[in-house]
UniProtKB/TrEMBL annotation:
<dbReference type="GO" id="GO:0008483">
    <property type="term" value="F:transaminase activity"/>
</dbReference>
<comment type="similarity">
    <text>Belongs to the class-III pyridoxal-phosphate-dependent aminotransferase family.</text>
</comment>
<dbReference type="InterPro" id="IPR049704">
    <property type="entry name" value="Aminotrans_3_PPA_site"/>
</dbReference>
<dbReference type="InterPro" id="IPR015422">
    <property type="entry name" value="PyrdxlP-dep_Trfase_small"/>
</dbReference>
<keyword id="KW-0663">Pyridoxal phosphate</keyword>
<dbReference type="InterPro" id="IPR005814">
    <property type="entry name" value="Aminotrans_3"/>
</dbReference>
<keyword id="KW-0032">Aminotransferase</keyword>
<protein>
    <submittedName>
        <fullName>Aspartate aminotransferase family protein</fullName>
    </submittedName>
</protein>
<keyword id="KW-0808">Transferase</keyword>
<dbReference type="InterPro" id="IPR015421">
    <property type="entry name" value="PyrdxlP-dep_Trfase_major"/>
</dbReference>
<dbReference type="InterPro" id="IPR015424">
    <property type="entry name" value="PyrdxlP-dep_Trfase"/>
</dbReference>
<dbReference type="Pfam" id="PF00202">
    <property type="entry name" value="Aminotran_3"/>
</dbReference>
Length: 457
């Protein structure tokens, strides 16, 4: 009797034969078989075996309004019928680009009123680099071209964005670093704070920026870039006082301050943008992900009035992407912002589900000594897994503690992501109390089982 392959096995075999995945080891992916996600609704995704899984990662830090929004589908369909594409090069625009630029100017803080569109966070950050350097050229200071980022910072995967970020494994792959990029320590108190209080450590970590500026000379530096909370680095949230000090140092040395809002933007921290949560005002602000809740690819870079005035006087901008401001993506992003506003999702995170999620995580911390630290804020969180909380002893890399925990949680129907030795959580902003309870219950069971598998009880 012939044995027929299941649909999942069939898809997995084709995937292994023809599809190269980002950030995956192809061999082990092929051995284990890729997970095929077929549909999604609200905060749940469904795989090709019919398992319904609570998506604690909002796709990839992006589905802020949740899955299954017919309104966004309708807007996209209408825009496709009317005008599926036109470019924004050479003196042309489309109504949806124009409307989105104006709309963004109403929600971005301070004088960030001018927007350049791209299609991904990586392209947005390449745009940041080119525009900041162009700005300093126009100011008569072409030698101000270097960027300072942070270890474990993530700004994307193009060559320039990889250089801007501080991920060593990415730098090492294919010698992917360009000259002109420097990195300072990440403000991770649990890892580097020693006996300092979090507040003392915040100033020490910010001082690393000034030390670096003095080392290479402010005259050679275009900008400092940081994520309000470092997402892909493991949800590293700086202690109080860090961001105002960083802003002060940038101003003192006349260095542009770039807040990468690709994860923290669009309500994640209970403000429209993460810099507002920390009370600082950047000069340049790349954004993506939650901008369209991932329904279509789009990103933007916001520039302050001061920078735009200079760019405006500087002649042609020799930069752009065919799909900069794709009309369908712009229409969907606009409708997505409508949803965030109409449903009060920013306030909901701040006053309701952010605190509710954080109290659930505090409960996990009380129950599981494998959690060394709960990090993050509002609807973005990380649980650092440790061998010993008291001594802050980490697991050895080969223990694979977070991966083990992640896989157990997945078996239980919860997607969390493992980053280094941390579990990270970033659910849709529409998540309900009952869904958060389910997430905490599943994480509770997953942590207990992981601790036991790792020999902690
Ligand atoms: C802070 C930050 N910046 C930039 C990027 C790159 O975005 P993309 O993957 O859309 O290129 C990411 C992606 O996770 C990110 O987290």
């Amino acid at each position: 009797m012939a044995i027929t392959q299941t649909r999942t096995a069939h898809l997995q075999a084709i995937d292994a034969a023809h599809h190269i995945h980002p950030f995956c080891d192809p061999k082990s992916l092929a051995e284990r078989g890729t997970r095929v996600i077929t549909k999604a609704d609200g905060c749940y995704v469904e795989d090709s075996d019919g398992n319904r899984i609570l998506d604690g990662m909002a796709g990839l830090w992006c589905v802020n309004v949740g899955y299954g929004r017919q309104e966004l589908v309708d807007v996209a369909a209408r825009q496709m019928e009317e005008l599926p594409f036109y470019n924004s090069f050479f003196q042309s625009s489309t109504p949806s680009q124009i409307a989105l630029a104006e709309r963004l100017s109403k929600i971005t803080p301070g004088d960030l009123n001018h927007f350049f569109f791209a299609n991904s966070g990586s392209e947005a950050n390449d745009t940041v680099i080119r525009m900041a350097r162009h700005y300093w050229h126009l100011k008569g200071k072409p030698e101000k071209y270097k960027f300072i980022g942070r270890h474990l910072g993530y700004h994307g995967s193009t060559l320039a964005a990889t250089s801007l970020g501080g991920m060593k494994h990415m730098h090492d792959m294919g010698s992917s670093t360009l000259p002109g990029f420097e990195h300072i320590m990440e403000p991770h108190w649990f890892a580097h704070g020693g006996n300092l209080s979090p507040e003392q450590f915040a100033l020490r970590a910010a001082q690393a920026l000034e030390d670096k500026i003095l080392e290479i000379g402010a005259d050679n530096i275009a900008a400092f870039i940081g994520e309000p909370i470092q997402g892909a680095g493991g949800v590293i949230s700086p202690p109080p006082g860090y961001w105002p000090e960083i802003e002060r140092i940038c101003r003192k040395h006349d260095i542009l301050f770039v807040s990468d809002e690709v994860i923290c933007g669009f309500g994640r921290l209970g403000e429209w943008f993460g810099c507002q949560y920390y009370g600082v005002q950047p000069d340049i602000m790349p954004m993506a992900k939650g901008m369209s809740s991932g329904y279509l690819p789009i990103s933007a870079v916001a520039f302050s009035d001061r920078i735009f005035e200079t760019l405006n006087e500087g002649g042609p901008i020799s930069h752009g992407y065919t799909y900069s401001g794709h009309p369908v993506s712009c229409a969907v992003a606009h409708a997505n912002i409508d949803i965030i506003e109409r449903e009060g999702l920013v306030e909901r995170v701040r006053n309701d589900i952010g605190p509710y999620l954080q109290s659930g995580l505090a409960h996990l911390y009380e129950r599981h000594s494998i959690i060394g630290e709960v990090r993050g804020a509002q609807a973005l969180a990380g649980l650092q897994l440790v061998r010993s909380r008291d001594t802050r002893e980490p697991f050895a890399a080969e223990d694979n503690a977070a991966m083990i925990c992640r896989d157990i949680c997945l078996e239980k129907g919860l997607i969390m992501r493992a980053v280094g030795q941390a579990m990270v959580i970033c659910p849709p902003l529409t998540i309900t109390h009952a869904e958060i309870d389910e997430m905490i219950d599943k994480a509770d069971a997953g942590l207990r089982e992981a601790a036991s598998r790792l020999g902690l009880d």
